[in-house]
Design brief:
The chain has 6 helices and no strands. With about 130 residues, it is mostly helical. α2 (about 35-45) runs parallel beside α4 and α5 (about 85-105) packs antiparallel against α6. It has helices at about 1-30, 35-45, 50-60, 65-85, 85-105, 110-125.
Length: about 130
């Protein structure tokens, strides 16, 4: 009975290890833009900013990403860069997202004030307002 119990315990220990390995390999695969956005948001939530930045940049560089996903990725990445005080990198991302929303009426126009507010915060931080 002890061997059976010990064998069962050992298999339970392997489960979390396998899950972590699968998650790590899934990160290297070609995920869809919405999946990458979600993975990036989850990485931000747990404080893994490097992984989140990589995920958002993958969406931005993904040729099949929709304009809506691109704007979301630009906004998420710029917010992350602002949180890290990387304003020189965040500003072009915000400007690009703002221009995309302004030039495409099919995109959610309610994002525009949020993006402009983030740009205003950036200007305040850098002393331009």
């Amino acid at each position: 009975m002890l061997n059976t119990l010990y064998g069962r315990s050992a298999s339970y220990l392997w489960c979390p290890i396998l899950i972590l390995l699968l998650l790590q390999t899934a990160h290297g695969r070609n995920l869809s833009s919405p999946d990458l956005l979600e993975a990036g948001r989850q990485a931000v939530a747990i404080g893994n900013y490097k992984e989140a930045e990589d995920d958002f940049r993958q969406v931005i560089n993904h040729s099949a990403a929709t304009s809506a996903d691109m704007v979301l990725a630009l906004a998420e990445l710029s917010n992350l860069l602002l949180a890290e005080s990387r304003t020189n990198e965040a500003e072009p991302m915000l400007n690009r997202a703002i221009e995309m929303v302004r030039s495409n009426p099919m995109l959610n126009q309610r994002q525009l004030p949020l993006l402009q507010g983030a740009l205003g915060s950036l200007y305040r931080r850098t002393g331009r307002v």
